[in-house]
Design a protein that fits this description.
By secondary structure, the chain is α+β, with helices and mostly antiparallel strands. The protein has 5 helices and 17 strands. It has a 7-stranded antiparallel beta sheet with strand order 4-3-6-1-14-11-15, with no helix packed on it. A 6-stranded antiparallel beta sheet has the order 7-8-9-10-16-17. Strands 5-2-13-12 form a 4-stranded antiparallel beta sheet. β12 and β13 form a beta hairpin. α3 packs parallel to α4 and α4 packs across α5. The longest helix is centred in the middle third of the chain and has 15 residues.
Length: 306
Amino acid sequence: MCRLLGLNAGRHPVSASFWLIDAPDSLEVQSHRNVDGSGIGFFDASGAPVLDKEPEPAFADEEFRREAKQARSVTFVAHVRYATTGDRTLANTHPFTMAGRIMAHNGGLGGLGRLEEQLGNYREMVQGDTDSERYFALITQQIDAHGGDVGAGIAAAARWIGERLPVSSLNTIVATAGELWALRYPGQHALHIIERPAGASSPPAPDTHAEAGTPATTGSQPGTGAAATGLHARSVTSSVHVPALHTVPSVVVASEELDGEEGWRMLASGELVHVRPDLTVESAVVIPEAPAHLVPLPSDNPNIDT
């Protein structure tokens, strides 16, 4: 399944390294689940969105295998893709950018013909074949319809889809320079959030990637302790290293709880969170009703998150 990760460091640009790769102990399994692309979105010094993505499985991409993806920004969006709609192409690889924003999606929806009718001229913003990019175009349309209110636009777009189209999940992260929004809807796929104060740290990860031909992920230097590691954590599909976060607070949203981090909270179904530049977090259940045409996953489907 697709995996999402969003990071907001507020008003403090930080250097982040993302290894969007498979854990060495599950390389074969993950290579069959997340083979369709990996990407990172962030913002440059002027606040313009930048996308660094490849339509290849992360484990097969030499850049992902041998080099940390490094960038400096206040907000980041990372994604590992398992395609349900659209071929493995650069245009279909997450994240996407529209109107100065970055978006990634985890899930699926049907009825794309009806969705395209609703998009009208906003259909011209879509470059690829995915349901996710069309979902983003609808979000963009609804943001404009709600006077630039990003949260209201996300909620309106998800509500429109949930009332009319087949849906498995509309989990999404939308970011601007310094702000981040995340929606979990409905409750089939997980989406977690953690608010990290300045000085929070996680223990250095073991150098397990070296066996798989990937960079070591400890990030620690001789003479440094855990307090100097900042955010350094990993999950099944990604490792994140942000050393500057030992001095500044941050908020992280992710499909999986990253190892070594305490304080994660699962978003409720229909819950939308907004992380402001001062890192205050606003949260509300904006879609309390279930989708009208939910596409349930079998109980033994590995894409189900709990």
